[in-house]
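We emphasize that the prediction below concerns an isolated chain of 147 residues; any contacts that depend on oligomerization or on bound cofactors are therefore not represented. The input was used exactly as deposited, without trimming of termini.
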Amino acid sequence: MRLWTLHPRYLDSRGFCGLWREALLAQAVLLGNTSGYRSHPQLERFKQHSDPGSAIATYLLGLYAESLRRGYAFDASKIRDPRASVRLSETDGQLQWEWEHLQAKLRVRAPSVYESLAGVGFPEAHPMFHIVAGPVRDWERAAGLPN
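Result of the prediction step, given as a token string:
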């Protein structure tokens, strides 16, 4: 499961559709509707909010807005709290690490998308995130993280 801090506009169609499915799974987990994935590190920042269900709903609403821009037919009725409006802080270190991680994926999986993003200096975050100075988050468990 990867719930990107990055704005979803940077994802290729495969990555974006996968993110929608994973965020719906995260919603089910955070609402207590599944027994699996409850300890997944990608859920930590949502769990830390006073209302995790509204936090993930806000995340999903950002994805839904991107789906409309792309002309996709995502089902908004799957978002449990369609009026949610939560802002979470995330670090510039986390955002930058995810950007490099995504670029490595796109270089192999979607070279044309990778090339179209070549001019992006520092990427935008998903609309729910307010970016602050800081390192990669402790919950990020991927290989190759800076010490």
